[in-house]
Design a protein that fits this description.
Keywords: FAD, Flavoprotein, Monooxygenase, Oxidoreductase
Shape: globular
CATH architecture of the largest domain: 3-Layer(bba) Sandwich
Number of domains: 3
Cofactor: FAD
Structural class: alpha+beta
Organism: Acidovorax bellezanensis
Number of strands: 24
Radius of gyration: 23 Å
Pfam family, one: FAD_binding_3
Helix content: 25-40%
CATH topology of the largest domain: FAD/NAD(P)-binding domain
Protein name: FAD-dependent monooxygenase
């Protein structure tokens, strides 16, 4: 048998690669395998949202990803040939995140960057290595692998993480239900060179009588991604070419395609696994949930899964945290996936519904309401929070507690633009933030626990962000607030920390 690896990761897409990066950075040995011959050669997922970039900052990845991608500063909504509403990401998100934009970064380039970063840390992806199944022995797993030459081997690991997509071998081995359904309509994706008023660096969405197209520019010179309705129920939809699909929505916004670099059709599914964990096996990313492409949420959600799981696995394997900490992965991420699938399902159904009434609402009523709503600052901010995933929170999690100001345990730590209080979050570790003055016993407790204490001079920007003067905020390694305490009492923080680490107070 091969030497023990603490975590064996099946699947080297963005989800599996980020899981490997986070675990490696925290000192956890990993082995990552994929049956493909190398990183993907097509663009597939395109959008990197603000919350993902915030988490990438902890890996020192944000700058490299932004430099390689294209910032889309706004979303324009079109209906029947007219631009009806615009959401400026900058004006909506500039007080919420260091990354007030949507980043367009094709998945193939994204994967290659992650592979290179992982290699720099000494971990090579084992390509052309297929997972055939595994057995859970209670204190470890044994995974059956097959190499490119057909030879098979059995590999031991402390845990296995299935990051192997919608047809996950790990999920099938677990026997976990993947409830949901499949929409009737086919969609297409195409990488093209185009011209016209919408072939710019912004995001443009056009609605035209159950025809739909979304434009994501790779640059400002007309190279970009199209996503649109291919066909209703055609048995031959999978063999369609770009010239075969409806172009009404394209024509309505004056978008003219000069060259098609890549084209594919697909069916849209919406499913969530009934369990994300069984014993020593975990489902992550598309292996655990799939949904419509509305909002570009899929890859970002998988990356969020990976980071949520990584610090908990590291806590158990490296710091002696209790096994129960790993149960919070399913509690937190599955709850979010269920909400996300419901939200994207409603949006997808609205976009693709047929009939005169649906067409009228979609092309006449909805754009007018959107235009009015986008004029209200609170609505713009809400829309940006929803799209950017900065709204994700875990208030009902078993490892969240307390409230101080508007911030609850389980919330994403609010970003304060005036001082950039996210700087300390580059450390993937527990830490305490106090906006004001920390109590002397809290200072002593942090020193005894070897937890970094960061104090910020309180002022109006912190109050505007919902933070409370002199309160204590215990921050998890993934930058979410674990515990918020009005009084800054170390005993309150200790109670939550003990639940996560299993360690008794240091006296």
């Amino acid at each position: 048998m091969t030497p023990l690896a603490n975590v064996l990761i099946v699947g080297a897409g963005p989800t599996g690669l980020v899981l490997a990066l986070w675990l490696t950075r925290q000192g956890v040995a990993v082995r990552i395998v994929d049956k493909a011959s190398g990183p993907g050669a097509t663009s597939r997922a395109m959008v990197v949202h603000a919350r993902t970039l915030e988490l990438y900052r902890q890996l020192d990845l944000d700058a490299a990803v932004i430099a390689a991608g294209h910032r889309a500063p706004a979303l324009h909504l079109w209906a029947k040939g007219r631009q009806r509403a615009t959401l400026s990401f900058g004006s909506a998100g500039q007080e919420l995140t260091p990354y007030p934009f949507v980043l367009v970064f094709p998945q193939d380039k994204h994967e290659r960057l992650l592979v290179e970063r992982l290699k720099a840390l000494g971990v090579e992806v084992q390509w052309q290595t297929e997972c055939l199944g595994f057995e859970d022995f209670g204190d470890h797993v044994v995974v059956q692998l097959r190499s490119a030459d057909g030879s098979e081997q059995r590999c031991e690991a402390a845990y296995i993480a299935g990051c192997d997509g919608a047809r996950s071998v790990v999920r099938h081995a677990l026997g976990t239900d993947f409830a949901g359904g499949t929409y009737e309509k086919y969609f297409y994706v195409a990488d093209v060179q185009a011209s016209g008023p919408t072939a710019n660096g912004d995001v443009n969405a056009a609605l035209n009588q159950a025809d739909f197209v979304l434009w994501l520019g790779y640059d400002d010179q007309g190279r970009g991604r199209l996503i649109g309705v291919a066909d209703d129920n055609s048995e031959h939809a999978e063999s369609l070419a770009f010239d075969d699909v409806g172009h009404r929505a394209l024509a309505s916004v004056g978008l003219q395609v000069a060259k098609v670099h890549w084209f594919s059709t697909y069916r849209v599914h919406h499913r969530v696994a009934d369990h994300y964990r069984r014993g020593r096996a975990f489902l992550v990313g598309d292996a655990a949930h799939i949904h419509s492409p509305v909002g570009g949420q899929g890859m970002n959600t998988g990356i969020g899964d990976a980071i949520n799981l990584a610090w908990k696995l590291a806590g158990v394997l490296r710091q002696g945290a209790p096994d129960a900490l790993l149960d919070s992965y399913e509690a937190e991420r599955r709850a979010f996936a269920l909400t996300l699938v419901e939200t994207t399902d409603r949006a997808f159904t609205f976009i693709t519904a047929g009939g005169r009434l649906a067409d009228f609402v979609r092309t006449q009523i909805a754009p007018r309401l959107a235009s009015l709503a986008y004029g209200v600052g609170a609505v713009r901010e809400y829309a940006f929070r929803l799209l950017s995933q900065t709204m994700i929170r875990y208030r009902d999690s078993p490892i969240s507690a307390g409230q101080a100001g508007a911030v609850h345990g389980g919330d994403r730590l609010p970003w304060v633009r005036a001082a950039d209080n996210y700087g300390p979050l580059a450390a993937i570790a527990w830490q305490v933030h106090v906006y004001g003055t920390a109590r002397s016993d809290l200072v002593a407790w942090c020193a005894a626990q070897r937890i970094a204490l960061h104090q910020f001079d309180f002022g109006p920007p912190y109050a505007a962000a919902g933070l409370l003067r002199n309160a204590a905020y215990l921050i998890r390694p993934d930058s979410y607030v674990a515990c918020a305490d009005v009084d800054g009492n170390p005993a309150t923080l200790q109670a939550l920390l003990s639940r996560c680490t299993g360690h008794a107070p240091v006296t």
